[in-house]
Amino acid sequence: MDYKLTFAEYNKALKKDKLMGLKCNDCGTVTCPPMMVCCNCASTNLEIVELSGKGKIVTFTVVNIAAEGRENEVPYTIAMVELDEGPWIMGNLVDMDPRKVTMDVIGKRVATRGKFFPGDRYSENGGLARPAFYFE
Fold first, then answer.
1. Helices H, strands E: what count in the chain?
2. Strands 88-93, 30-31: parallel, antiparallel or unpaired by DSSP?
3. Contacts 24+ apart (CB under 8 A), 23-29
4. Which CATH architecture has domain 52-136?
5. pTM, whole model, 2 decimals?
6. Where are the domains of the chain?
7. Contacting residues for 102 by C-beta, under 8 A, at least 6 apart
8. What value, to the nearest 5°, has the Cα angle with vertex 8 and ends 27 and 11?
9. pLDDT tens per residue, range 77-88
10. Prior bond of 118 cis (ω within 30°)
């Protein structure tokens, strides 16, 4: 069984400011980031779709102690966003000073744009993209 959308392809699209996912042709569920099977019904009958990247914040955390390779970025805010198409994805909330983020951001509308980081000692050459969210 092969991936319809590999992580490398997902990452490459994100670097071009496109958020890609998979839509199940059997149950209609949209999955993001890519998986081998539908996260709802386990079907392999999937098609690649471009997602809007828009949604609402459902929760967040402010990181004050960095993961290895991100030491120069603290503090930063990681948000869990429910996309309009259904899936929940994590990414950086970059539109607000992490020292000022409060519970008021929950439910706020955001849109994603690809953001790059140079990677860490575990990343492949060229770094990885990660979703970056901005208030609409």
1. 1, 8
2. unpaired
3. 23/47, 23/49, 29/86
4. Beta Barrel (2.40)
5. 0.89
6. 1-51, 52-136
7. none
8. 85
9. 999 999 999 999
10. no
